[in-house]
Amino acid sequence: MNALFLALVITAAQIVLGLAMGCAAFRMLRGPRAQDRVLGLDTLYLTGMLLLLTYGIQTGRTLYFEAALVIALLGFVGTVALGKFLMRGEVIE
């Protein structure tokens, strides 16, 4: 693979992920129900994590991979907590 081709593909992926973040933010702000807003937030953290991963590949620094791992863990816990709150009305039983 050519290095120029790889750089172009990574840049294109970052642009598409930025557009996906915009769509997820729109769904999070304008969702008709709370479930739609949680789904928008879940998509937003996921695309943010993928954007960090592509930037880490582009720059070659490992700091971005560690940050993406932290975002994935905290996002998963937040989604589970919000889902539990929407189902039962409380997070801690």
Query: Rg, please?
Result: 16 Å
Number of helices: 3
Overall geometry comes to elongated
- CATH architecture call: Orthogonal Bundle
Remind me, CATH topology? Helix Hairpins
Determine the structural class based on helices, strands and strand pairing.
Answer: mainly alpha
> How would you spell out the order of helices and strands?
HHH
Helix content: over 70%
Instruction: Give the termini separation.
Output: 54 Å
pLDDT averaged residue by residue? 92
Largest sheet: none
Q: What percent of residues are in strands?
A: under 5%
| Contiguous runs where pLDDT drops below 50 for at least 5 residues | none
Features:
transmembrane helix, mainly alpha, antiport, Helix Hairpins, membrane, 3 helices, ion transport, 93 residues, transport
Brief summary:
The protein has 93 residues and is mainly alpha-helical. Helix content is 86%, strand content 0%.
